[in-house]
Amino acid sequence: MILGTPGSGKSFSAKRSIVGVFLNTKDDILICDPEAEYFPLVNRLEGQVIKISPTSTQYVNPMDINLNYSEDDSPLALKSDFILSLCELVIGGKEVLQPVDKTVIDRAVRNVYRPFLADPDPEKMPILGDLYNELLKQPEPEAARIAAALELYVSGSLNVFNHRTNVELNNRLVCFDIKQLGKQLKKLGMLIVQDQVWNRVTVNRAERKSTRYYMDEFHLLLKEEQTAAYSVEIWKRFRKWGGIPTAITQNVKDLLASREVENIFGATR
């Protein structure tokens, strides 16, 4: 973890680390760039920059999954946990997901992925709209409430994440530039990028290749309870599966205020 006050050199330190890894290893390097600080360096190193914004034509599908997504018999358990975190951010405010909400979302997730897992054709990969439609089919009033919150991100003005992925993430150095998402979408964008990186980690693990992940403004993912728990779980899995995460933040107070941060420090030893 790289912690420090504004102007103390956190980004510079991270960039030095990225250059060192790029020149001295064959590891893949992925960067979540909330403030568009890293893309000039990535361009200079002939890496790939993916700009995600409400007006962008580059899309990353939050529903992407591969069959190695989890070491469990079914990859759906961890993916369902991710979707729960996504829904928590979408609903927003002080209203946390209740047990009934989580049950409804989990059921909808399993129904949505069933056709794809039976026939893993990329053309059948679900999108957020499929989850929205499945939630509308559920009888519980909680399902309608969650679907109503998702509508803005499916058919509304913030539908940037309701598309299948249309970029090839095959460069060893990839920067996700999410600055233009704005405050409302930034945490959601960080969570989705984290999930995309996890997909890359699962692929690289089979090839015995390490995956480096640099995430700036990491404290934003620790504010909501479900999202913080999921992010810490992914942090641990990164390390177990050959990933090397680096979190960067100037909001040390917010970081330490998270109940989950002790687990991160424990996993960082």
Q: Would you kindly provide a brief summary of this structure?
A:
The protein is α/β, with parallel strands linked by helices and 269 residues long. The protein contains ten helices and six strands, in the order βαβαβααααβαβαβαα.
For this entry, give a set of tags.
alpha/beta, six-stranded parallel sheet, 10 helices, 51% helix
**Average pLDDT value?**
88
Structural class: alpha/beta
How do the SSEs run, as a string of H and E?
Answer: EHEHEHHHHEHEHEHH
Strand order in the sheet with the most strands: 1-6-5-2-4-3
Radius of gyration: 18 Å
Unreliable residue runs: none
Report on this structure.
This protein has 10 helices and 6 strands. With 269 residues, it is of the alpha/beta class. The chain has a 6-stranded parallel beta sheet with strand order 1-6-5-2-4-3, with helices on both faces. α3 runs antiparallel to α8. The longest helix is centred in the C-terminal third of the chain and has 25 residues.
